[in-house]
Amino acid sequence: MDLGELENKLQNCTSCGLCRTRTNMVFGKGSRNAQVMFVGEGPGEQEDLQGKPFVGKAGQLLDRIIAASELPPEHIYICNVMKCRPPGNRFPNEEEVDACKPFLREQIRIIRPKIIVCLGALATKTIVRPDARITRDRGRWVQKGSFQIMPTFHPAALLRDPDKKRPVWEDMKQVRERYKSF
Ligand code: URA
């Protein structure tokens, strides 16, 4: 299955109850040939309305972080663990996460990024390991198969707590250096 086919299939997804409350399924954006994939948590209000990931305030900050990191847009792909918005932005439950995980796995398999940046706790727990802790594990590379994974704070966390900007910048410098080394 290619990326377009997977996206089309998910437009009608009913794998969990979030299909009843979503406006749009939010698949991903960016390059099919991305070397760096950013994975967030799930769509918020704006993302649900527009059908695109990271278009709200946290998304604008993510765009600035990526621009400052000098990673070329043609090598970036952005998506989420959850493809549908939990009502009122509540945290997705385990059943919902489990239902959605195979689609992220498939996206990763198709795109084959060299680097995966996990934005926040849910992406880190889903991609790295279930008992990962973002405050403890951020900033440290994890190798899984052919993927180099960097957990860092979610941009929404930076909006709440500006003290997290410095560590994210340190993490992104590592991402840039690793990207340049390929
Ligand atoms: N937060 C996320 O984790 N993902 C989005 O797409 C938007 C906000």
Describe the secondary-structure layout.
Layout: H1 3-11, E1 29-30, E2 36-40, H2 45-50, H3 57-68, E3 76-80, H4 94-111, E4 115-119, H5 121-127, H6 134-137, E5 142-144, E6 147-152, H7 155-160, H8 165-180
Parallel strand pairs: 2-3, 2-4, 4-6
Antiparallel strand pairs: 1-3, 5-6
The structure holds uracil (URA).
Short structural description:
Helices cover 43% and strands 14% of the residues. It has 182 residues and is an alpha/beta fold.
How would you describe this protein?
With 182 residues, this protein is of the alpha/beta class. The protein has a single domain (22-180), classed as Uracil-DNA Glycosylase, subunit E (3-Layer(aba) Sandwich). The chain has helices at 3-11, 45-50, 57-68, 94-111, 121-127, 134-137, 155-160, 165-180, and strands spanning 29-30, 36-40, 76-80, 115-119, 142-144, 147-152. Strands 1-3-2-4-6-5 form a 6-stranded mixed sheet. Strand 5 and strand 6 (147-152) form a beta hairpin. The chain is globular and about 40 Å long. It starts with a helix and ends with a helix. The model has no long low-confidence stretch (mean pLDDT 98). Bound molecules: uracil (URA).
